[in-house]
Amino acid sequence: MLLSILGNSSLSFGQKVTYILITAFCVLLSLSIHELSHGLAAYAVGDNTAKYSGRLSLNPFAHLDPFGALCLFLFGFGWAKPVPVNPWNFRNKKGGMIFTSLAGPLSNFILAFIAMIFSVILGRMSFASPTGIGFTLASVFYTIADYLVVINLGLGIFNLIPIPPLDGSKVLTAILPQNLYFKLMDYERYGFIILLILINLPGFNTFLGFCRAGVMNFYENIIRIFIH
Question: Is 35 among the catalytic positions?
């Protein structure tokens, strides 16, 4: 995302700064909601670890993983610092782990859907003067909504990949039989390396973009039923 902004020769310096600030705001908000949702889900099913670790917060700096945030800022997909959980505190260990792990991506899909509603509404509004303050504010809010859709879908989809430390791996380990679980744990320490290789594979961005476009199309079809 940042690269496309900087490389857009049609934008003035001021516009580039505005888009960069909007991107930073959307990235920090999306990461915070993602991790807060993990913490609240764990708390709801009996684990207080996130609460005592100060992770039940919308403060982005409580959740920031610098490299994961940079990836989200640059490419539209990434991750945050995992919320600590203790599955032994869950009332149902496997069910609690699945619920907690899925809460983060689910929050991003919900936020993306809400943002798309605003994007559709603002995109259909017209203003008397394209140079007035109303038009300028509407353009900013439209851009924020549009970026929230892209960033949250990228964050949600990417984190469902079953590679540590992403949420999909925690869902996978929760549903695997015990013998397969321990075999997978043998390779957990290589998860970040595998993740870096995956990110740099030719076609990965295309695949992620295809998935994101599919979800966006699904959302648009739902929204059109209610907003004509």
Answer: yes
